[in-house]
Amino acid sequence: MKIAFFSTKPYDKDFFEKHNQTHELTFYDVALSEISVRLTEGFDGICVFVNDKVNASVIEKLAKLGIKLIALRCAGFNNVDLEAAHKSNIVIVRVPAYSPHAVAEHAVALIMALNRKTHKAYNRVREGNFSLEKLIGFDLYHKTVGVIGTGKIGDAFARIMQGFGCKVVAYDIFPNQSLIDSGVKYTSLDEVLQQSDIISLHCPLTDKTLHLINETSIVQMKTGTMLINTSRGALIDTQAVVEGLKSKKLGYLGLDVYEQESNIFFNDLSEEILVDDTLARLMTFPNVLITSHQGFLTEEALTQIAIITLNNITAFEKGQKSGNEVEL
Ligand code: NAD
């Protein structure tokens, strides 16, 4: 099949070309949008990532241009208008699991860096400053870690935190029996918010989870709570979190995702003026650590993303089901 890739970086091209045998792949670095959609003329399908706009108007244009398949090279599909795709007879496939460990381990990396301030120590030592002032952290051992969403990534994350000797409490609409067997205690969302020293978000972004962390939920947290989000930016009402940091209710914030990340994350803007005042404000806090959506960025995850996406495309071409179709 002839597939147009959007929002591609050199590593996408490397991993996909390494594993591709049968399809004709064209890599565009621009994101899919109402304007760039015209680049899909002459293609059978497209491959998109987390911040590509796959709304109703783009889908209508894709259908007119003869696109039959949208292959997401990610797990989340909150950026796709499923109803519009269904109406246009365009099939959506995704990569439901590639390496849950990649994202779970990145959440732990944020916790460790925020707690022990390794990012600050690294810079200090490089400048010849060997002082330990203001580098005091806390033992993770025996702390309570709240996991919201215990699917593949939340499961991997909970088990790592158990390895540190943490007590893990969790909230999910579908509790995971093997985690219960391992000692994780499921409880209500309110209790997770109230009991945890560290809260990590691992649920998908849906109408129900939009701004799950907001002014009301922050009020319930312990003073000094560490909040980690490696899932989707809009799980958090960012302005409420800024207020929570200012009032010191939130003691630490680790973000790999941000509600307004599209057009910012994945790009080198070091010579540009940052126009997002909320992100700029977040970057001023000494207890905030932001990475630009790199949870998935491991050799293992990129390999699996390429192999599974290419298999999804091949299955569609053969009129078969890959099992990775996103249904309405
Ligand atoms: P998953 O589908 O395996 O697990 C999601 C879990 O969330 C499920 O157990 C589900 O029951 C639960 N859930 C759904 N709605 C809920 C609600 N209202 N309240 C509480 N729990 C709810 O997904 P996963 O593979 O573990 O991925 C989780 C999320 O991580 C994805 O949706 C995606 O947004 C994000 N993600 C981020 C990166 C990154 O690079 N930072 C990479 C991959 C995935």
From TrEMBL:
Outline the extent of the D-isomer specific 2-hydroxyacid dehydrogenase catalytic domain: 3-326
- Annotated GO MF terms: NAD binding; oxidoreductase activity, acting on the CH-OH group of donors, NAD or NADP as acceptor
Q: Does the keyword Oxidoreductase apply?
A: yes
Task: Name one matching Pfam family.
Answer: 2-Hacid_dh
Keywords of the record: NAD, Oxidoreductase
Per UniProt, residues of the D-isomer specific 2-hydroxyacid dehydrogenase NAD-binding domain are 108-295
Q: Which family does it belong to?
A: Belongs to the D-isomer specific 2-hydroxyacid dehydrogenase family.
Question: What's the name of the protein?
Answer: Lactate dehydrogenase
